[in-house]
């Protein structure tokens, strides 16, 4: 259910594939990076890790000259630099690229290194094919068994021209009819939502659900209330209480299917949310909203 001013109002094909009627449900997962100890402390960086079924988030705070390294990475991953004053040096596949702050970077498989000469914060988003990172996630036990209703990741086609460092400015102005600032790679879709200043209008919320994929909601500024409601089935034992989770920044909320959900920015200042999906969403792709779609083709069956 969307307000008619929301670009998603007329959208169809919300799921990646037809889904059976759900009879069992999982709860939401919350990574409250602001209130917990980091899982990794290394190379002048502190990193908090929380996962979903197909994706995981590593939120890091780095000292001046701090670095984040990956060796033998099995697939692409995404780097978010949300602050304009936080440039980075990104190295991978024999390339070294100087990246401005307020950017999204896609890094190739293999060895890579990210250095923040002036320190600051950075977020990396991986698929859960990185078993070493899966094991370190604060909520690893939640995924000891596969969560119900989630279609497992099948990577999309390789990028045009092969795997390499790809950089994109997040300084993309809103366009009428386009939802957010959406980028995808072979395993992930990231929507760096338009800035929200002040509390969200409670008369224009967007309660909706996904049949077969999780949503990661990464809060990078402000405070959010995530409202969640699970369906009732004939089995009372499967019912779950509504949740109205108030979370600060930085944090990650993993919203399971098919929970009805909507998120409400609460602060008077900036509220900044980033939505994460794995695999990339078919419906958003079909709308033409993906800003780097010319570099990352959709599967042939969807074209």
TrEMBL record:
Family matches, as InterPro entries: RmlC-like_jellyroll
Protein name per UniProt: Uncharacterized protein
Organism from which the protein derives: Tianweitania aestuarii
Lineage: Bacteria, Pseudomonadati, Pseudomonadota, Alphaproteobacteria, Hyphomicrobiales
């Amino acid at each position: 259910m969307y307000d008619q001013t929301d670009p998603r109002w007329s959208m169809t094909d919300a799921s990646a594939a037809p889904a059976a009627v759900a009879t069992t449900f999982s709860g939401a997962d919350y990574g409250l990076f602001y209130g917990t100890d980091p899982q990794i402390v290394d190379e002048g960086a502190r990193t908090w890790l929380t996962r979903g079924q197909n994706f995981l988030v590593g939120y890091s705070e780095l000292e001046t000259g701090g670095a984040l390294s990956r060796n033998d990475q099995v697939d692409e991953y995404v780097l978010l630099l949300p602050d304009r004053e936080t440039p980075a040096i990104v190295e991978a596949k024999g390339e070294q690229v100087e990246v401005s702050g307020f950017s999204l970077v896609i890094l190739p498989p293999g060895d890579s290194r990210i250095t923040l000469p002036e320190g600051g914060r950075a977020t990396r988003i991986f698929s859960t094919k990185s078993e070493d990172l899966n094991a370190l996630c604060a909520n690893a036990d939640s995924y000891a068994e596969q969560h119900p209703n989630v279609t497992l990741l099948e990577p999309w086609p390789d990028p045009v021209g092969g795997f390499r460092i790809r950089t994109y400015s997040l300084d993309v102005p809103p366009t009428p009819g386009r939802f957010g600032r959406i980028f995808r790679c072979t395993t992930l879709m990231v929507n760096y939502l338009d800035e929200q200043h002040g509390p969200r209008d409670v008369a224009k919320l967007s309660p909706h659900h996904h049949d077969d994929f999780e949503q990661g909601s990464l809060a990078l500024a402000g405070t959010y209330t995530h409202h969640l409601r699970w369906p009732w089935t004939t089995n009372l034992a499967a019912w779950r209480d509504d949740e109205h989770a108030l979370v600060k920044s930085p944090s990650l909320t993993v919203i399971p299917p098919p929970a009805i959900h909507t998120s409400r920015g609460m602060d008077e200042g900036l509220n900044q949310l980033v939505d994460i999906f794995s695999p990339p969403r078919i419906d958003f792709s079909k709308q033409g909203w993906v800003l780097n779609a010319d570099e990352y083709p959709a599967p042939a069956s969807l074209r």
